[in-house]
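Why does residue order matter? Because the sequence determines the fold. Keep that principle in mind as you read this record.
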Amino acid sequence: MRLQLAIDTLILSEAFDLLDRLQTGIDIVEVGTPLIIREGLRAVTEIDRRYPYLTTLADLKIMDAGAYEAGLAFDAGADIVTVLAVAHDDTVSGVVRAARDRSRQVVADLIAVHSPVTRARELDALGVDYVCVHTATDTPDTSGPSAETIRAVRATTTRCGVAVAGGLTPERMDAFASFPPDIVIVGSFITRHPDPEQAVSAIRKRIDEKERGSSPQQADGFSATKEIQ
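Structure:
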């Protein structure tokens, strides 16, 4: 599992301050939708330039003009962009095409999809690199992504990876410990924590325990590499 830090509500200077402290504990830095709306794609460029060894994801949530909008983000420095799973297949294909032209990657966000398992299978066939099981911030359900949905999406996808987002904490990660996703996306648990380094350590500990297949024990280090798989 790789750890993706979602940076949404901060301004760019605050994002720098946080990343300077946490950069060795994360694998992917998500330039969140609100941050891009506030700062523009320069946020992607500046974060990618300042932290070149981290994978930079631009959470554009593309809904139309797929190839064009994805190209803007990739050319600004993004390694990965997001497209909404509810977008038209042609839009998704355009995003995938833009990614392939630049040796980059695509995450399809299953947020608000009524039949996530069926759509995940379709997106897998369209060539996305990951599908993301995502509970919306505005939903009254505060329990995070359903373990049953994660398990079913994992079972139905044959090529792409699976990411999970939405209210994740170390305790909620235990619900899918037996079928871990490829990427766990954590935002407010870290960014609003009184001790963000401690929060990252707690998440990392869960990841390391699962990857070692061991009983709970103290995680003994961080790793962060900029790799596109």
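Confidence is low (pLDDT under 50) at residues 214-225.
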